[in-house]
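Internal QA ticket QA-208
Title: Verify multi-chain structure generation after dependency bump
Assignee: T.L.

Test input:
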Amino acid sequence: MAEAHSLENPRLQHHFRNADQQFSSSKLGMWLFLFTEIMFFGGLFVAYIVYRAWNPELFTMAASQLDTVLGAVNTVVLIGSSLTIALAIRAAQTDKQKQIVNYLLMTILLAGVFLVIKYFEYMHKFDLGIFPGAFYTFEGIDHPKANVFFSIYYMMTGLHGLHVVIGIGLMIWLVVRAKMGDYSSKWYTPVEMTGLYWHLVDIIWIFLFPLMYLIE
Amino acid sequence: MSGHHIIPMKTLISTSLALVVLTIVTVAVFYLPIPAPFDVVVALLLASFKATLVGMFFMGLYYDEKFNTVVLMFSFLFFIVFIGITLLDTLFRDSGISVW
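Actual output:
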């Protein structure tokens, strides 16, 4: 590996030996951030586990209010968006400038589909009076603590949804910069890091789907 | 050259297909009459397998420096500790205390 010099590569910061070292450092930094994200969602998963252990029958009754088909469709939508952002990274690595933009736009579109489906799920529940905590007025679940399940449901899916919105924002920024030709096989660090973030959002949904929608 | 591996198109497509098939399996298993604790176990095993596929092939851990995988493993370890210590409290409270 030839020693890169900052005059040859304007992206290379002086405190890194070469572009490779800089890239793997960025990646390690991103993984450390994902560590904190896992612990962040972890707190909510622990709340879920504690309340489910205390009241298993409540979770079985309340989950019947969630639409399995919509949950499954959203799982597939997020898997598709993970594929398209992986393809965007691949396009950057192979210097296909136009494909980077197209795959990013497809990812944004799929993320939008996810949010639209989630919006209709929320609206349907609001119509029934299924609100979190003290605002809960639904009477279709014969359990005194039915609101607790939905507090956890709204916190977990809401925080996940917020991550999807942030992901869309990041990808819009990537599209703008990709259109200016900022990314190529020489340097595409932001695309790679946004990809890692987006895949983690996908993984969290992969766990949320069976834990929320599929309770017998 | 670490971290710059171009993941083959075939790998990306087959990973996605495997994830879709596993999602269908997850839903199908839900309708099978599996007794109480094992339905959750099966669902979590399937989800973990899907997460592993995403981590290895979409996030590139399979091709990466192994230290990134170590970081991820440690996050799981601390998450398990988090669950374990919390349950040591909540599972063993006197019935009078567990007012929630």
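Spot checks passed. Chain B has a mean pLDDT of 90.
Status: verified.
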